[in-house]
Model the fold of this input.
Amino acid sequence: MKNLRHAVMLSLMGRQVDRFHEYQPARSFTERLEMTKRVRGAEGVEVVYPQDFADAGETVRLLKGSGLAVSAVNLNVKSEKKWQTGSFTSPDPGLRREAVEYLKTAMDLAAELGSDMVTCCPLIDGHNYSFEVDYVKQWRWLEEGIGEGAQHRSDVKVSLEYKINESRNYVILGDMGRTLYLCERLGLANVGVTLDTGHALVAKETPAEVLCLAAGAGRLFYVHCNDNAREWNWDMLPGSVNLWDLVEFLFYLDRIGWKGWAGYDVVTRQADPVKTMDATIAMMEAAEGLLTKVGGQRLQRLIDDSVPAQTFRELMEAFL
Done:
């Protein structure tokens, strides 16, 4: 298997908190970029608009001089207070318009930075309770907003990342099926899917299976890798819980001839984020190595034979 192109999500090098504790302190853009440059194997960074672009000119200058490619600009239309009732699906038409303008700006910045990708996880769009929102209007607003924004320029892709919940109890793009449905409804060649393996696990999907669905539809644009125990999106080290899901995912990435990036959405709760990202890339490379050791043709034969006992015996023996 050809080695993956590894990208670090720059925000993960900074402040990390939950409801009870702060795990990592706030760090400036410059500090986070310098830390990422020390991560072994990192070739690119995923930056966040608007948070990483308080001084857009300086951010662009620093990124262009960093020696790292920009894998994607991550559009954040969820964390600012104004998005509390939604972004692309806000009941306020002025806020919906602002979300579209954010998307267009992110696309322009991506192009300026030499990237062809904007990824967006619209986590504030959805609902918490029955009878809280008008589902018919919400979906229409989502189609209108994403559709208008994506048509701003055809040389930049808009890659939509789904997640079943958080910040909303029910996020409007909660799974692969709904996200592909939106892509088909829009019918735009530059609208596709960011497949986050952790989000697929929480949605009770098999990452490799939904990878094949997205690739078959021509809509697999970007990949995030992390892990969890299928009950909450803990953003753990990839393969630390679901090793075989990761190996299977890599097998199908290789089978479809994936040439894109793998971005790492991994949270550091202990120690240094640089060490966490070092370990993340090393673990991905080790999983690739295991896949190479087993062999793609051999794995395909095991899949075709469909005898799990034999499959897992040979996989376990590959460790020896």
Observations:
- The domain at 5-317 is CATH 3.20.20.150 (TIM Barrel).
- The CA atoms of residues 181 and 307 lie 34 Å apart.
- The chain is about 40% helix and 15% strand.
